[in-house]
Amino acid sequence: MKQTTQITDPASMALEDIDVSDPRLYAEDTWRPYFARLREEDPVHYQAESAFGPFWSITRFQDIVEIDSNFQDFSSEPTIVIGDLGDDLPVTQFISMDPPKHDLQRRAVQGVVAPKNLAEMEIVIRERVIEILDHLPVGETFNWVDAVSINLTTQMLAILFDFPFEERTKLTYWSDLAAGSPEIAGGDIDPQERLEGLQDCLATFTRIWHERKDDGVESMDLIRMLQRDPNTANMVDNPMEFLGNLVLLIVGGNDTTRNSATAGVLALNENPGEYDKLRANHALIPSMVSEIIRWQTPLMHMRRTATRDVEFKGKQIRKGDKVVMWYISGNRDETAIDNADQFIIDRAKPRHHMSFGFGVHRCMGNRLAEMQLRILWEEIMTRFSKVEVVGDVQRVQSNFVRGYTDLPVRLHLL
Ligand code: HEM
After folding, report:
1. Is 6 left (phi over 0), alpha (psi -120 to 50) or beta?
2. What is the per-residue pLDDT across 188-202, written as a single tens digit (0 to 9) for each?
């Protein structure tokens, strides 16, 4: 894939050469000074040339809130990632729809994360977390990403879909395929493998749909919820919409929480003073969880498409232009968040961040994600004095999902 950014000194580059869509900036974790310059010198930045075509970058906190709250001028259709979808799998999903259709489809599934359901899930999640942590090899080096982060979020997904437990790793595989395409976000997944994998995902869930239809089981799994709501009861007859929404729920619940579960270990190791604070006071776990989600920004951007010519902060955005809101930059905006580059687990307003977006598309699973991470840390802290990072972290190549493939760690018991 052609990339336009030379990874050189961001302070001396011409502004027009700063292409923050380059996925290498995230694989190599070198993105900070590029966004700092854009926020300072050109917060609504036009990128005329990139591997994903021309696009606007919105990099300041308040500007992102404004765009995200204005679906009339900045539409989520046809897609919310920087790259355009290929024609081989023209899926539709409610994250890529505007009201009123968006609202109907979101309403059909949001009961899965209603407080009553979350309270029930808390018990199951805690059991799963305990089971995972109690089987980790103490005193040996292992990859936290596989053993804990992926393992835990895969089990969560299986619960949400009531998916056959022994086949649950398929969910993670489909999630990786869906989010890792080169055209969409600069990843390195083979397009043919992606196509075949997602077709298998559709076929599997279509079979599950028909098996469950009218079986009379009272369950809050996502498939039966879609079946029960009149607005989505026939979704299976529109395969691209069915697949799109499945992928949305799989990726939404998977990559994001998985990478936050790794980020916490990394952040605490890089900031030993914060780890000490946590050891001294476990009541900081909820605010630490919000800080991990801000610090990590698991989804780095959302894209909108202008529905008309709009003047925004003195720039002329044309109808049809791509407008990319860089949450990863908004979360480091010093004018909105004090000491934004630092990881501080006892912030006065820990939920003041943009990792869950704003407006009609604000993350549906935010409380579920926070709960999973809270339980994980509550259980870690009653077992281990330290989860020590003992090797190099490896990051995912993508400008959308900010993630990890490897984090070698060693556990120390209390
Ligand atoms: C730390 C974890 C998570 C992060 C950082 C995250 C982030 C986001 C973001 C940025 C959006 C788009 C917001 C916007 O456009 O304004 C979103 C939407 C969404 N998320 Fe999450 N998410 C997380 C966990 C979850 C989980 C566990 C679920 C599972 C239920 C989930 C389901 C969704 C869905 C269904 C949407 C689409 C909402 C809509 O279009 O109305 N997310 N998420």
Report:
1. beta
2. 678 889 889 999 999
* Two tokens, residue 225: 């919820």
Side-chain half-sphere exposure of 70, counting CA atoms within 13 A = 16
Instruction: Tell me the C-alpha distance between 237 and 254, whole Å.
Output: 26
Q: Which pTM was predicted? A: 0.94
Per-residue model confidence as pLDDT tens digits over 3-48? 544 556 788 889 988 999 999 999 999 999 999 999 999 999 999 9
Residue 80 alpha carbon, nearest atom of ligand 1: 15
- 31 CB within 6 A, ligand 1: no
CB distance 106 to ligand 1 below 6 Å: yes
What's the gap in Å between 299 CA and the centre of ligand 1? 9
Distance CA(82)–CA(60), nearest Å, equals 18
Q: Pairing relation of β-strands 408-413 and 142-143?
A: antiparallel
Q: Beta strand 322-326 with 310-312: parallel, antiparallel or unpaired?
A: unpaired
CA 91 to chain centre: 19
Give the burial class of 353: count Cβ atoms within 10 A of its Cβ; 0-12 exposed, 13-18 middle, 19 or more buried: buried
- Whole-number percent of the chain with pLDDT over 90: 72
Would the CB of 94 count as within 6 Å of ligand 1? yes
Cα separation, 322 vs 236, whole angstroms: 31
For β-strands 55-58 and 322-326, DSSP reports them as parallel
